[in-house]
Amino acid sequence: MDPMAEVLRTRPARSGRTGQRPFGSLGDKIEVDRYAELLRKKVSDVKEQLKSVVAASVLEQAKIFSSERTQSQHRAGPLAIQRPTAARRSEGIFLEFSCWDPEAKDHSLIDPVEVPIYSLAISAALEAMRRMPIVLDGDVSECNDDAEWECVDTDATSVRADRSADRSADRSAAWGKIIGHGLRSAQFHSTLSGELMVCLAYQDARLKYLKKGEVLPEEDGNTFETSSQGQTWKAAAAEFKALLHQGVEAAGVQGSKIDVIGRWKRRRLVLGRDFVQESFALEDGRTLTYHQPEGQLSNPNASCEVHCLNWLCQQAKEAVAQTRTSRSSSPVLLELHSGGGNNTVALAPTFQEVRAVEINRILAEAAEENLKMNNIKSIRCTRNTRVVRADAAEIDVATYTGCHIVLVDPPRAGLDEKTRETVARMDQILYVSCNPLALASDLEYLREGFQVVSLAIFDMFPYTSHCECAVRVQRKPAQIERHPNRAAAGSKTWLIVPLFFTILGALYALWKKRVRRRKAGLG
């Protein structure tokens, strides 16, 4: 494997780490008119990467799901924030957004008009922020990373709603200094349902050695949130949010809901909520609602995500049909790297039971919330779906015993060795991958006993070399009855083992209690 292919296989899909230059003033221009041509080239490259592990007939019949040509990305950032040049300042630009370009070794400026990949809400927010009177550090000589809050007007009354014309300029200057003080980057998260979450990231050198929950000497509250300084930021953020809302609605996003979050090292302030709520309408008539927390993984291309969910639902039904033909037991799905439960919620009605495994606490909690919001646990029985908080590589036998079908959506590097072994125990595998090279490596591992029967390619990241692939892999018929794990399949071992240890624990607790009583009597 050549060096660049190794980088593409193992490293996260961020600008500068996979050979993909960021968009912007220094990068390649986005040619919307060439989208169809670029997609054909990308599909051809993906098929070339998979041809050694996927049959030619499956490659030819692969389902291709294109992206919206513009406004497809519902996540942006983190985008670095910097001061504009004097010429740009004269045009009414107060700040610039940029991404680091490793090839040019400089920041590539992001103009939402010239980079039309972001959703309308995000594009409007970017443009609105660029023109807000936000004063970044350096514009005020006495402000720097180590400066105290007193370098800006911390009197909360100066940023309260005051409609008098003679104070409007002072108020703008006050909240603009507070929002800009220490501001280094911003992230944006929008939804198909019209919601927008903006996270402003700050740097303050004084917080480097501060423990979580502690306050600085000059802060007058038990916590940063309750201090007058924290309240001042929230008051300024309210002004910022109001202007942002005006800009977004002026762009045509009516009825939008905007939430603003400020992040510092070991501290955070929230104006509104720290999540968005997305809704996806599927082909089968269901409308699914998802709780997506701030700063956590979710698919940036919402319309392509709907295509992926529809494809997975169809493939899951076919996998269940195949399993019922070869097995007498009812289908149980094991899902590894389940994240916030997007796939879990969509697929749960197809199975008697789903066991979703996720190690990230916040995502696991989001998955539980999404199951509850979509009434999943009441579809078949009270324990139709359960979320297991664990590393996919460290799950115990009881978690996967009785499962014949597995869904995996691993990180960019693909499956680790232990997870491969777990996956290889199943009869049907649904595999969603953001990296065709890692997918090819895992399919090579499965080649001896499995065959790929279906392939889909989703253009989640238009105008880049990246895409998302999904395959359904099934065990070769001759291998099904001979597979050593099948003796335990369909049994209730996964119930008996936890029950045994529960009873053993209860007996041990009873024995300890009796021992303590005897000692007390002897005393």
Description:
- 40% of the residues are buried.
- The protein has helices at residues 3-10, 35-50, 56-60, 86-90, 120-130, 168-180, 228-250, 302-326, 342-347, 361-373, 397-400, 417-423, 436-446, 477-480, 493-522; strands at 63-65, 75-82, 96-101, 106-110, 183-190, 195-202, 257-264, 267-271, 275-281, 287-293, 332-336, 353-358, 385-389, 405-408, 428-433, 450-458, 468-475.
- The chain is globular.
- The chain contains 15 helices and 17 strands.
- A hairpin with a 4-residue loop joins strand 3 (96-101) and strand 4 (106-110).
Strand order of the largest sheet: 1-16-17-15-14-11-12-13
Percentage of residues in helical conformation: 25-40%
Shape: globular
Strand content bin: 15-25%
Short overview:
Helix content is 35%, strand content 21%. The protein has 523 residues and is an alpha/beta fold.
Keyphrases for this structure?
eight-stranded mixed beta sheet; alpha/beta; 15 helices; 35% helix; disordered N terminus; seven-stranded mixed beta sheet; single chain; 523 residues
SSE blueprint and pairings:
Layout: H1 3-10, H2 35-50, H3 56-60, E1 63-65, E2 75-82, H4 86-90, E3 96-101, E4 106-110, H5 120-130, H6 168-180, E5 183-190, E6 195-202, H7 228-250, E7 257-264, E8 267-271, E9 275-281, E10 287-293, H8 302-326, E11 332-336, H9 342-347, E12 353-358, H10 361-373, E13 385-389, H11 397-400, E14 405-408, H12 417-423, E15 428-433, H13 436-446, E16 450-458, E17 468-475, H14 477-480, H15 493-522
Parallel strand pairs: 1-16, 6-7, 11-12, 11-14, 12-13, 14-15
Antiparallel strand pairs: 2-3, 2-5, 3-4, 5-6, 7-8, 9-10, 15-17, 16-17
Helix pairs in contact: 5-7, 6-7
